[in-house]
Amino acid sequence: MVFDPSPDGTSAPYKARVASVGRYLPPTQLTTDDLMASTRHNTKIDLQRYTGVRERRVLDGDGDSHLLAANAARDALEHSDLEPGDLEAIVGCSITRSRGSDGRTWGLEPPLGKVVAQQLGASRAISFDVGNACAGMLTGLFVLANWVRTGVIKRGMAVSGENIFPLARNATGHVRNLLSREVASLTVGDAGAAMIVEQAPDDSQDILFGLTTVAKHSRLCVAHVDHDDPGARMFTKPVALHNAAMKNMPVVYQQVLETLGVPLEEVHHVIPHQTSKAAIKTGIRKITEHLGQSLHSHAVMTVDRYGNTASTSHTVAFVDELDGEHVSAGERVAMLALASGLVVGAMVFTADDALVASRSSQATKTTSGSDPHSSGNGNINLTGKRDINLTGNIDEALVGSHANNN
Whole-model pTM? Predict the structure, then answer.
């Protein structure tokens, strides 16, 4: 999916910008050592060494996908000069749809976007959901940015709440060794993310997207309800998935940069989907070799602290960059999509003065680890059983921890 000119060859009348970003990270931190100590079988897997994941955030006590998404949406609004009533569209982009104080029930209706709109009080906003695995946020932003560029709306929000750790909880009962098809499930963590796009001045740099699906690889990562476990289990063929991604991602990224007219060296912040450290390093190497260019700086990696947070991972990492004051106005950001389907692609935009200032040390900030609805005791019961009723299937690509070790 790319932005095309109108039938008469003219460009869209408006441009789009990223106005604000927000995230929510649950307060409970779970280390990889503690997770692996809870496995039923003696796996002898050094997961941290293979994946680079040291810890992840996990919902504990009351909480669900909607809470994660709504808190991230509030964070995005609080780091802007906007009110909920200014939003004309809210798109839910989560893979997970957990609902209720006990997190046991999953459902597709009402849409997550609708729930977030109601909780924010965004009464003017059209709301609906899109699903595109780990590329969900970038897909929702593509839809919104296109609406902004064509004048359908002036601003909208893409939001996601990934309560995906139950995949890891279930995997601890089944993984026996590094070749298990559920090893990738052990890398996931919970998070919420939100991004607002709006109409930009005529002299601004537009947002560019390039997303494509290589459908023949769709069965390399699937998930389904399991009657013996509380929720879903995910199964990947990580080596095949990784190889397919490495073959297709450089080609798509090249097309995006050529359309933008920007060489790789002029992209200041490259944010890959956060799968594992080894997979990210290999992916960046494949891209630079294909283009014959080098990165302006190192790729952004947060997988060591947060794990793979599915569709929220790019936003979670970008907020780290902004809050750490590593981003200057005028710098380009590229978010690289990688998801089951197999979906590959990129979103490229320029961080302007207002966006950088919105999360500077002088700006009003929320505490991304504080949740008034959560027990927040810093502990989680890894052996507890929770019954989850899924009303829809999950299909998500999380590149396996040993994808680069074969």
Answer: 0.86
